[in-house]
Amino acid sequence: MPYFIKPSVNLSREEKRAAYAAARQAILATLGEEPSEMVKMVTINSLLKSHLPYYYWVGFYLVRGDRQLVVGPYQGTLGCLYIDFGRGVCGAVAASGETKIVEDTHALVPGKEHIACDPNSRSEIVVPVRRPDGSLMGVFDVDSSLESSFDAVDQEELEALLGEVFGG
């Protein structure tokens, strides 16, 4: 693991709720009435990664054209540049429009069910991000260097936060 990337540290459900509450408060206070999607994305990445110690990689993949995602703002090691809808976890979420939690990314079929941009990634959650008109802006992807880092708490908190910030 590169020396500048801290390994993940899992939290209990109660600790997660507290960390998300603090992060949400910081994100909303920082953004205020900010209209820029890009500013919203970089702020969310920075503050969530700061508050949640199991976030190893965090970022957005944005819809490009009809059936492709392109890497957007992120924090962590190098992300995949392009992902076709239906390929990997991010592509599956873009195609289905439904959040997906993966307990062990190494148990997935490489190149089809999971795209291994970083071998240190062991679990993942991907959430669709929508604009106020309901159109898919992209997906929000979080990886952990530990297995089973993500659960229903993460899904609930992230879906609510992203819906509030982006209006979708």
Protein described:
It is a single chain. By secondary structure, this protein is an alpha+beta fold. The chain has a single domain, classed as Beta-Lactamase (2-Layer Sandwich), CATH 3.30.450.40. The protein is 35% helix and 23% strand. It contains 4 helices and 6 strands. A 6-stranded antiparallel β-sheet has the order 3-2-1-6-5-4, sandwiched between helices. A hairpin with a 3-residue loop joins β1 and β2. The mean pLDDT is 92.
CATH architecture: 2-Layer Sandwich
Strand tally is 6
Helix coverage percent: 25-40%
Shape: globular
* CATH homology superfamily name: GAF domain
CATH class: Alpha Beta
In terms of per-residue confidence, which ranges show pLDDT below 50 for 5 or more consecutive residues? Answer: none
**Overall radius of gyration:** 15 Å
- Helix/strand/pairing class, anyone? alpha+beta
Oligomerization status of the protein chains:
single chain
**What order do the SSEs take from the amino end to the carboxyl end, as H and E?**
HHEEEHEEEH
Strand order of the largest sheet: 3-2-1-6-5-4
Average pLDDT, all residues: 92
In short:
By secondary structure, the protein is an alpha+beta fold. The protein has helices at 13-31, 37-51, 88-96, 152-166; strands at 57-64, 68-75, 82-84, 100-102, 123-130, 136-144.
Question: Which features characterize this protein?
Answer:
168 residues; alpha+beta; Beta-Lactamase; 23% strand; globular
Write the layout of secondary structure elements.
Elements: H1 13-31, H2 37-51, E1 57-64, E2 68-75, E3 82-84, H3 88-96, E4 100-102, E5 123-130, E6 136-144, H4 152-166
